[in-house]
Amino acid sequence: MDNMGPAVVPTRVGHQGSFGFEVINESHYGHSIFLDVNRTNRGKGNVLAVHSSFDGRPGKIVYREEGEQPGQRVRIRLDSPSRYERLDVTVDLMTADITADYEGGNQTTMKLQNMAVVLTPPGLLFDLLVPSTLPAGVVFKGIRGVESDGNGAWRWVDGPRASFELDVAEDLDGFFMLGMSNPIVGQDVVVYLNGEKIGNKEDIPGSKWLQDPITMEMPAKFKKGRNWLEFHFGRWNHKDPDSTFAPADANLLAIALTSLSFWKADAH
């Protein structure tokens, strides 16, 4: 055990170990399914493989990697059938002989911890308010962590500019759904994707905290590789007396982001 809790490790060097679990879908409706995996794979020759099967149909490998791999987090996305009752997931782990850290072998060069399954509506590719859906390696600038209270969840976004960057494996055509709680009367927001303007709202009225969020739907196309989404704001906390809504807070808060999700083009 470590600060991430218990770990699953292969019991014999050079031999594959497996475990599995099932997810029962009582609604029977399809989902986007995210497997959020924290793993260590720091030995050449190690293997991690994840298989999925719906309703007893022939399974398929949805993720496979050989060591040595950096980092710990892996996000795997599955598209389910339009209707299904059961999802079976099998995980294979193997530590190769050549990865031994000391004489006799050390299986902990390959281990898996904190594997989560998140079910979301069909067509969702990621949601900033659901961190398990985000690809690994997302970089935030001026966008704070998820917070919540009895009214819901949000991320504070700083002015005058804020952004996030992420890598995608292929070109994607879809749309963003954005929701925000606006504490500053007369706020202006412009949104850019890879430097191209995709949406804006001007003179936004102030709103009660997390009630009646302002929404925007914006068409978007991601290109394979690195992409960045950027927000430009006309007002933010401490810009001027009319924009200052939290004088005791030194942060340049502009809006509270209540949703920001990216969907496939056919998800309407």
Number of helices: 0
How would a crystallographer describe the biggest sheet?
Answer: 6 strands, antiparallel
- In the CATH hierarchy, the architecture of the largest domain is Sandwich
SSE pattern, N- to C-terminal: EEEEEEEEEEEEEEEEEE
Shape, please?
Answer: elongated
Let me know the number of strands: 18
Short description:
It contains no helices and 18 strands. It is an all-beta fold and 268 residues long.
How would you sum up this structure, described in words?
This protein is mainly β. It folds into 2 domains: about 110 residues, Jelly Rolls (Sandwich), CATH 2.60.120; about 140 residues, Galactose-binding domain-like (Jelly Rolls), CATH 2.60.120. Helix content is about 0%, strand content about 55%. The protein has no helices and 18 strands. The strands form 4 sheets. Strands 8, 10, 11, 13, 16 and 18 form a 6-stranded antiparallel beta sheet that branches. Strands 9-12-17-14-15 form a 5-stranded antiparallel beta sheet, with no helix packed on it. A hairpin with a 2-residue loop joins strand 10 and strand 11. It is elongated, with a radius of gyration of 22 Å. The mean pLDDT is about 85.
